[in-house]
Amino acid sequence: MASRTSTPRSRSRSSTGSSGSSDTTMLDAPPQSPSRPVRLRHLSASNPNTAPQAASSDPAFSLLLSLPRELRERVYTYALTSPYPIWWPGFAPVQHNFGTSLLRVNKQIHEESVQTLYAANKFLFTHPSDCNIFRVISSPASYNITCVYFRIREKDLRLWTSYLGSKTAERSLKFDLPKLRSLWIFMRCGSMGTPAMIGQLGQGGMGMQGGGGLAGLPPAIAVQVQVVQNALGQQLHALQQQVHNLNNPHADTAGNAADTQDDLAPPPPPPPPPAMPFVQFQQGGLPHHLGQGHAHNHPQPALPANANAIPIPPPPTFNLPAAPTALVPGANLPAHHHQHQHTLYNSFLRFEREMGVESLCLSLQETRRQETEVKIVCIMRIPRREVERLYQLYPNELERDRHGDARTRFRKLHGAEVSLEINGYDIPGMPSHDTQAQG
Asked: Per its UniProt entry, which superkingdom is the organism in (predicted)?
């Protein structure tokens, strides 16, 4: 009885052991329970949607850093650049909408994107100290600035000339912006009234008492015109005195002739000249009939020794065109003429030489790097009607924008490119050109 009962037990053990061993060795055996599914070992490989979920759970993972460097640079350029200049200090008239929060993502993104912020934008400063201080207080990455705009006022011109021409490491454009490639200087050169208005006021002032010619103008324009009139009067007086001294060396020997001519009536005055062109007004404000001809001084006829006779001043020593001509750069001119004579641009340069345009270019010539492009825009404000008249006189020289302002082409001056911009302004009480055209 004992042997019979032991045999099934041994068989049960062997069968159980064999079945257990078969379960561990046969990987492709069907499951014991049909209701329990098979667990796959590489589930993430069969379902790609789980990869981003696993990566997002990693705090060190960044989709931006997973992009190639070229694509990241395009993202930085899109988020951190603006077509408008960045004003400092102060705020620009337009909003830039920079994505500066991108700079605070992590250290690597900050180091990559901050260079784009400074190298791909334009910065505007209105005082030389602003540019110098900005480099001190801003990020060291401002070392990469490549384009700046300077707005220069007349009263700050000497400060700017000193800063641009300095070679010291503490305060100079050369050391503040070592990677500068583009420099734009907008220099305001003042405002002035119309030449036609000045001539009309001069005639009206002589016929009216109490300065009736200036009565209809605003006080600022009246003061400005009065200053110009005084300058014109002093210049004409000096010319008349010079002619009188040159033509009266034989006044003592010709005393008898002078006595006989005392009874002669003075010749009638010539008709008033037309309104002087603006280019003549820039050259010194001489009347139109004094600017005819060339630079050679021809002998003048002898003047009567009558005290009432007004001597005729000699022609000026500079050249002015008798009529407006096409101002094409590089035109064929005689050998004794300068390449840029008879142009509105160079007339302005002669007029503005004392204002410091030439000294500004010379200061930059010694300190700027060879790869730096310098452009200077000299801005002058005149009445809007005169802008229209100048554009009609010099259509080949001036280009107009959508605001009605005009600008000449850029031309080289001591290594820099200089242009004259003429901004128009409306005079209260005087109809503009557009109003007259509509009428």
From this structure: Eukaryota
Q: Which of 190, 188, 197 is nearest to 427 (CA)?
A: 197
Enter the pTM of the model.
Answer: 0.54
Name the pLDDT band for 203 (thresholds 50, 70, 90). Answer: very low
Mention every residue, 6+ apart, whose C-beta is less than 8 A from residue 372.
180, 181, 182, 183
pLDDT for the residue numbered 357 = 83
Residue of 377, 365, 415 whose CA lies nearest to 174? 365
Residues 6+ apart with CB under 8 A from 69: 112
**Cβ-contact 394, 327 below 8 angstroms:** yes
- DSSP strand pairing (411-413 vs 416-425): antiparallel
- 99 contacts: CB under 8 Å, gap ≥ 6: 79, 80
Mean pLDDT check: name the lowest of 241-245, 258-262, 266-270. 258-262
Q: Which residues pair with 87 in a beta bridge?
A: 124
**Phi-psi region for residue 431, left (φ > 0), alpha (ψ -120 to 50) or beta?**
beta
Report how far apart, in Å, the C-alpha atoms of 53 and of each of 44, 57, 174 are. 10, 6, 52
**Sign of the dihedral defined by the CA atoms of residues 223, 226, 230, 235, in that order:** positive
Query: HEC states along the chain?
Result: CHHHHHHHHHHHHHHHHHHHHHHHHCCCCCCCCCCCCCCCCCHHHHCCCHHHHHHHCCCCCCCCCCCCHHHHHHHHHHHHCCCCCEECCCCCCCCCCCCHHHHHCCHHHHHHHHHHHHHCCEEEECCHHHHHHHHHHCCHHHHHCCEEEEEECHHHHHHHHHHHHCCCCCCCHHHHCCCCCEEEEEEEEEECCCHHHHHHHHHHHHHCCCCHHHCCCCHHHHHHHHHHHHHHHHHHHHHHHHHHHHHCCCCCCCHHHHHHHCCCCCCCCCCCCCCCCHHHHHHCCCCHHHCCCCCCCCCCCCCCCCCCCCCCCCCCCCCCCCCCCCCCCCCCCCCCCCCCCCCHHHHHHHHHHHHCHHHHHHHHHHHCCCCCEEEEEEEEEEEHHHHHHHHHHCCCCEEECCCCCEEECCEEECCEEEEEEEEEECCCCCCCHHHHHHC
- Peptide bond before 89: cis, by omega within 30 degrees of 0? yes
Cα torsion through 408, 411, 414, 415, rounded to 10: 120
Q: How many CB atoms lie within 10 A of CB 388?
A: 19
Nearest to 377 by CA among 412, 413, 407: 407
Q: Which residue has the tokens 């229209």?
A: 388
Look up tokens 């069968």; give the residue: 15
